[in-house]
């Protein structure tokens, strides 16, 4: 396998690019910074979408769709917002062969256009909360693109809500953070994320608070996997999102926004992948069990098809590989690269003994198993390996995280992993110093690990790291 992928320990970025190419997950698009998501990669994204969409709907939000093109004047109405996005904007000045009367921005995010329609749709306190989500593409012109992690166009969901009170808006932003984002990442993606508050320097442009889910990758760097923002009344005032209160007065709403993207696919690769390829957590995997005909003849093909049907009837997402005209070794390597959680290999010799061979991607174990026991063994392996991937990632994070007391120690520790340091030992000036050395404050936590409301609370802990 070393000839297929560059070893992670030798060159982690090259390993990442090799894996994406060899597992046929994605390719570079024709315009610099864009990507083509291939079927194998898109199948994983579809599973992420389905799991996330269900959680968002459970939180009460409804899906809608808003335009790709946004009048430039909309962005200018919230000064901090347009300033934050200005370097990344793609602007259309001509359409239909003519110069446009007003330039339009290709959607970098939709706070402004959705704010315009919230103002139109909200009139009374009875219209609140207004809970919206959209699945869309966005464009942010990247100077240093990397597939899935930073591309000029990417896919995501973005939620936007309006509430009658600040407390209600804050509670909803946190509900999404924990019940949609953290739950998906921990329990489906098997990534043990650190949830916390972004500093003022790191928070979303135009927000009053940004909450984040941070994952540690295989090389010890951090990756921001999702964020949820309190926007206060900034956008409500810019777009006149007001409502008649129960008392008869006119009040500005309180709004939130929140998003996750195809960056989660990059996180999945870098958190769980190994030198043999991708390892997909069973709850997420589009194909959980891959039944393979080793060599045809002697009833092998029929037995493999019967196992596929039995696994499907048991609720397992299963595929059958009976391409005996392709060498088995090549097919097995491809299955390893794709990260199928369990392979069920059926060959004449094992079948003659009444067995099939179960190969578990997580630990590489190969176990001859009576054909009659295969379904139960596969179900048990899927449950065990979901937990095993999470526990392995958590152990990795804990082994690469150190407790320090000074900014200098934190910056040094960030060369190989994460540092936890008192926020009082860093502060605004220390954060700027760390940034100058390529280290960022990923998030702030309370001493008990809970998420603070502001960075001014006493005794906060800062997590510092290098990041993607």
Automatic annotation (TrEMBL):
Please state where this protein is localized: Cytoplasm
Q: What class of enzyme is it?
A: ligase
Q: Keywords for this entry?
A: Aminoacyl-tRNA synthetase, ATP-binding, Cytoplasm, Ligase, Nucleotide-binding, Protein biosynthesis
What InterPro entries does the entry give?
aa-tRNA-synt_IIb, aa-tRNA-synth_II, aa-tRNA-synth_II/BPL/LPL, Anticodon-bd, Anticodon-bd_dom_sf, Pro-tRNA-ligase_IIa, Pro-tRNA-ligase_IIa_arc-type, Pro-tRNA_ligase_II_C
Entry-linked PROSITE patterns: AA_TRNA_LIGASE_II (PS50862)
* GO MF terms, alphabetically ordered: proline-tRNA ligase activity
Domain Aminoacyl-transfer RNA synthetases class-II family profile intervals: 32-281
- Taxonomic superkingdom: Bacteria
Q: What is its EC number?
A: 6.1.1.15
SMART domains assigned: ProRS-C_1 (SM00946)
Q: Which reaction does it catalyse?
A: tRNA(Pro) + L-proline + ATP = L-prolyl-tRNA(Pro) + AMP + diphosphate
Q: Which residue stretches, if any, does this entry annotate as coiled coil? A: none
What job does this protein perform?
Answer: Catalyzes the attachment of proline to tRNA(Pro) in a two-step reaction: proline is first activated by ATP to form Pro-AMP and then transferred to the acceptor end of tRNA(Pro).
Similarity comment: family membership: Belongs to the class-II aminoacyl-tRNA synthetase family. ProS type 3 subfamily.
Q: Could you describe the subunit structure of this protein? A: Homodimer.
Q: What is known of its domains?
A: Consists of three domains: the N-terminal catalytic domain, the anticodon-binding domain and the C-terminal extension.
- From the Swiss-Prot or TrEMBL record, give the protein name: Proline--tRNA ligase
- Please give the organism: Micromonospora cathayae
Recall the taxonomic lineage recorded for the source organism.
Bacteria, Bacillati, Actinomycetota, Actinomycetes, Micromonosporales
